[in-house]
Automatic annotation (TrEMBL):
It holds the Pfam family Aminotran_4. Keywords: Pyridoxal phosphate. Its cofactor is pyridoxal 5'-phosphate. GO terms for biological process: amino acid biosynthetic process; carboxylic acid biosynthetic process. This is Uncharacterized protein. InterPro entries: Aminotrans_IV (IPR001544), Aminotransferase-like (IPR036038), BCAT-like_C (IPR043132), BCAT-like_N (IPR043131), Class-IV_PLP-Dep_Aminotrnsfr (IPR050571). GO terms for molecular function: catalytic activity. It comes from Stephania cephalantha. Belongs to the class-IV pyridoxal-phosphate-dependent aminotransferase family. It comes from the Eukaryota.
Length: 399
């Protein structure tokens, strides 16, 4: 229930400055924290000097000199029972259905798995929610196998260490929880996203009152088909994260979101970040690679950006193209913008998009403006690897 002290906008700054006249109070002054919007007095049950604001008379000083009648009604905010609250969650879940389906969730706070999307919630006092103190990772599910699960679990544990989060389980424990969650979901084609959090405790900045860290995982099925067509990218004007944060896969993705939105607002698929020295860095949630005029696969170094599991796997698979003489060499180093824009091919690489050719960067057309043969070959290689690759990159799930 709001009081006058909870309203933040100074009343003097409002175009319709109210005067409060209370029959039982002669004081005409209000705390400077009082503020209204047009319907503010209808949206809250307010109190003024300890008395219900509903007893007050409100008049607006404006050109029309309109005086409002005594407020007798306020917007009612119901207090829900447990069953009513759960029912509201279910209704909301039904109303927001889209291309993604959430098939199962594990929560270490609850100690188990739910397959009801409405119950896939986490505590508000979890420090990952209100302080961003959490890390995450993603793995693809292909034909009943989780792709590169060990590699992704190893990375989330590195991220957790950098975020000073002590995980509730070790590598093998997390792996088994994730496999069981996929099994419960019955999903054979989709993705697995999971988080390590400082855990619930309070709304302070320090996690010292968090009783234990938390592991969450969600299995996602997406009806969107894999896109193979080339895209346009732009150079991002959103500041890139410093290396110590860019190399940690944390939930602090506001710069990434703004970078993606910037691209969409300019008719592009993604924005490309440059590092503090002006070299090509990465996209908002993907790595970038090039095929030079010398037929070399060129990828920016990982020392200032996130070490992409898919990108590193592409580097390994690309060795087959070198043996087949489709590529001359594989190089990982700093890449200048001019060098990247003059490449024969450019591509984005990530677990969600796999390989996406880039046809245009800003106003510069890449190569001949068509999807290049190396990008297409690498996409086929990674798809084959996901379906038929060695057991160290394909973890089976028992359903």
């Amino acid at each position: 229930m709001a009081t006058l002290f909870s309203l933040c906008k100074p009343i003097s700054g409002h175009p319709f400055m109210p005067k409060i006249n209370n029959s039982s109070h002669d004081t005409p002054l209000l705390t400077q924290n009082l503020g209204f919007n047009r319907n503010g007095y209808r949206d809250f049950r307010l109190k003024f000097e300890g008395q219900p604001f509903l007893r007050s008379r409100v008049s607006r000083c404006c050109d029309q000199a309109e005086t409002l009648a005594e407020i007798t009604n306020a917007f009612e905010v119901p207090i829900l029972s447990n069953s009513e609250f759960i029912e509201k969650l279910k209704v909301n879940c039904e109303e927001r259905k889209g291309k993604q389906s959430f098939l199962a969730m594990y929560s270490s706070i609850c100690g188990g798995i739910t397959t009801d999307p409405a119950m896939m919630v986490i505590p508000m006092d979890d420090h990952m929610v209100h302080r961003g103190h959490g890390v995450f990772d993603t793995a693809a599910i292909m034909d009943g196998y989780v792709y590169e699960l060990d590699q992704h679990v190893a990375r989330i544990l590195r991220s957790a260490s950098m975020a000073k989060i002590n995980p509730p389980f070790d590598h093998e424990g997390i792996k088994q929880v994730l496999i069981h969650t996929v099994s419960a979901s019955k999903c054979r084609q989709g993705s697995l996203r999971y988080w390590l959090s400082a855990g619930p405790g309070d709304f302070q900045l320090s996690p010292s009152s968090c009783h234990r860290s938390a592991l969450y995982a969600v299995v996602i099925q997406d009806s969107t088909p894999l896109a193979r067509n080339g895209v346009k990218v732009i150079t991002s004007t959103v500041p890139i994260k410093p290396p110590e944060f860019a190399t940690t896969k944390s939930v602090n993705y506001l710069p990434n979101v703004l970078s993606k939105m910037e691209a969409e607002e300019n008719g592009a698929f993604a924005s490309i970040w440059l590092d503090n020295e002006g070299y090509i860095a990465e996209g908002p949630n993907m790595n970038v690679a090039f095929v030079t005029k010398e037929n070399e696969l060129l990828m920016p170094a990982f020392d200032k950006i996130l070490s992409g599991c898919t990108a590193k796997r592409v580097l390994t698979l690309a060795e087959g193209l070198v043996r087949a003489r489709a590529l001359n060499e594989i190089i990982v180093r700093n890449v200048a913008v001019k060098e990247g824009k003059s490449a024969k091919e450019m591509m984005l690489i990530g677990s969600g998009i796999l390989i996406r050719p880039v046809l245009q960067w800003d106003e510069q057309v890449i190569g001949d403006g068509k999807e290049g043969p190396v990008a297409q070959a690498l996409l086929e290689l990674i798809l084959q690897d996901m379906k038929y690759g060695p057991e160290d990159v394909r973890v089976p799930v028992t359903y």
